[in-house]
Amino acid sequence: MIEAKGHGGQVQFDGQYLTITRKGFLARATVGKGEKRLHISQITAVQWKPAGAFVNGFIQFTVPGGNERRSSFGSQTSSAAQDENSIVFTKQQQSDFEKLRQALDQSIAVQHAPRMAVAPGAASVADELTKLAALRDQGVLSPAEFERQKARLLGQ
């Protein structure tokens, strides 16, 4: 499970579901208090703006039928703070969000990869990669071992 706490909310990702949780006054003042849960298949893109020395960054999740709006120059982060599919973060919180983004990018790629026909009872390459990624995320496999197994599966 990957968790990242931002400014006005937190995000959890378990490999299948992304959960955005908002609590407290700041949540009520922006998009509202509560929890939103998205399956990885619902997320089509992840927008990323890194935090700078004087400005916060954000991560935004695009879903089909979503109502994202184009921000004007200089107001991207303040617009993201009003979006229910975005979490704003500080420079100190950014590393947790980078890990989250990396895991999401990989899971989205696996989810949207073309499925190959497999014999009944046989696992697809995408299924095997998903299992390997889960083992890596749980700490069972080292990142190097994960990369070796992934290369083996992909025939590299």
The radius of gyration over CA amounts to 17 Å
Order of helices and strands: EEEHEEEHEHHH
Number of strands: 7
Total helices: the number is 5
Which descriptors apply to this entry?
alpha+beta, 4-stranded antiparallel β-sheet, 156 residues, 5 helices, single chain, 3-stranded antiparallel β-sheet, globular
Description:
With 156 residues, the protein is of the alpha+beta class. The protein has two domains: 2-95; 113-154, no CATH class. The chain has five helices and seven strands, in the order βββαβββαβααα. It has helices at residues 24-29, 76-81, 94-112, 125-137, 143-154, and strands spanning 2-6, 9-13, 17-22, 34-39, 45-49, 57-62, 86-89. Strand 1 and strand 2 form a beta hairpin. The protein is globular and about 50 Å long.
Gist of the model:
By secondary structure, the chain is of the alpha+beta class.
Question: What is the fold's blueprint, element by element?
Answer:
Blueprint (H helix, E strand, L loop, with lengths): L1 E5 L2 E5 L3 E6 L1 H6 L4 E6 L5 E5 L7 E6 L13 H6 L4 E4 L4 H19 L12 H13 L5 H12 L2
Antiparallel strand pairs: 1-2, 2-3, 3-4, 5-6, 6-7
